[in-house]
Structure formats: C-alpha cells, structure tokens
C-alpha cells in the first residue's frame, strides 16, 4: 500500500510532466495560430516597405484564418523595431518585415553592431526584390549624373542627399555614387522614405535614392526627375531611365536591388517557420490579389525557403561591408 508521503511527490512529478507536455503541444504548429499575430514594420505608414508588409499580412491572415496585425515601430533605420522583436517570445506570434538594409548594411555602419543578422533572427521567407532609383527635384537644371556632378562641384559643401535612415541602401548607394563622381556630399537621414521624399520634392535636399514604386508615381506626376536605376537592366516602370552602368560605367558594381523578407526571433520552432514559409509560397503561387498588389509596386516575387534570409544577408554583406569600410561610414 502506498503511503500519503510517497504519493505526494509522485503526484507532483506527474503534474510537472503534464505541464511540460502541455507546453510542448502548445508550441506545435498544428494549433498555430490560436491568437492574432503581430507583424512589426520597421518603417512608418506610407512607406514602400510598410505597403509590402501589409500585403503579406493580408494574405497570411487569409491563409492562416487568424488576424495578422501590422505594428509600425520606425526609428534608427529598423533598430527600434529589431529591439522590440528581440524583447518578444520566440513563439511565432511576433514577426518582423525586414529589408536588405537591416540585414546587410545597418549593423555594420556602427563600430559596435547593435545586433547580429546571422544570430538574432530565424528566416520565414524572402518576399521579393525591387530596384532603386536616384532622383532629383525638377527646376534645378539636373537631367543627368553629369549635371549633378557639376552642381556638386559648384557648391562649397557639395550636395545634400537624403535617405530613409543611416545604414539604408539609399544611404550607402548614394554615398558610394557620390564617391565615384568625385564630389563632396552630405548625408541627411530621415525617419522613413516618406519624410525624405517630401524634403526632396520641396528642394530641401538635392537628391535621394528611392524604391522605384515610390519614385515612379512622382516622376509621372512631374514632381521628380530620375537620373539612374540601381539595377542590371532597365525597368518597364521607367523605361527611359538608364541603369547605373549606362549612366556611369565606373559605378556598375552598384547595380544591386533592394529586397524584403519576413523573419522571426531566433529560437522559433522550425515547424512554425516552415508553416509560415508554406503560407508565403501559397500567397506567391496562388493568391492573385497578393501577386497583383506587389507587382504593382514593381516587386519581383521570388521563391524562398526559411534559410534564404540568412543566405541572402551573408551574400550581400560580403559586398557592403568592404564598401562601408572604404567610405569610412562606420560610427560609434
């Protein structure tokens, strides 16, 4: 006969095992998601990145049968959003839309990197790529890179160029281009692309590199003049705009499109990552609304596995990090 003194420890042990089993079951993808998912956007509403984020959120919600709520946390070119993600549980209920900038440039423009793209995130999927365009406001007499070079040489401090933030592709590409033109230039960071676009159209800055989906509408409205496309081939959206190699052969190495991905906090269950990746693939392959909305932004959709975000990040960082060192862009 079992005494009360021996039964109590056994009951406690069984209760502990039940709790562990319940926790393990709760983490399995079969019941996921049982509540809304928050998708953190690292740029403000109205930006190209935010628009792409919302397209994925809408389709993922349809596929998962659960709300995917976009939470905008702009600032420091994504660092605030990244820190917020890192403060959340690695349970698949907090995701982050992240760009080439945050994965391959931003951490390396600081001498003490604020995060590690290869260790702080687990990839869900790379959504697609989009070319960038260097543009200037009309009324300045600038129609080519040679005109921009001439203007910069005529001013004591050269030109002022904007970007959505320190460490963004726009920051690095324009800095590298100014260096190749051999002219002085001052970087003016903004909180998001929209704020920089407003300053550009108001002639508060001389030039800015923009996502083509943002630039094209303003070009067609006569509010911007495009000078060069940072891509390997011309875009059907702006067919008269030369590629960077056509506009300045010495800058052909700058033909690098931006890309956007969805990631989770490191340590997220591989089963959940695979589930979310499968959702993305279904959106890409079979959801007409998803495809048409992204293609309207000139995003080229791409197939992807969960590991691609890290692979793409390592590939591009191998190009950007030496350039950051060469231009002396890293600061404290």
TrEMBL record:
<feature type="signal peptide">
    <location>
        <begin position="1"/>
        <end position="26"/>
    </location>
</feature>
<comment type="similarity">
    <text>Belongs to the UPF0065 (bug) family.</text>
</comment>
<dbReference type="InterPro" id="IPR005064">
    <property type="entry name" value="BUG"/>
</dbReference>
<dbReference type="InterPro" id="IPR042100">
    <property type="entry name" value="Bug_dom1"/>
</dbReference>
<protein>
    <submittedName>
        <fullName>Bug family tripartite tricarboxylate transporter substrate binding protein</fullName>
    </submittedName>
</protein>
<dbReference type="Pfam" id="PF03401">
    <property type="entry name" value="TctC"/>
</dbReference>
<keyword id="KW-0732">Signal</keyword>
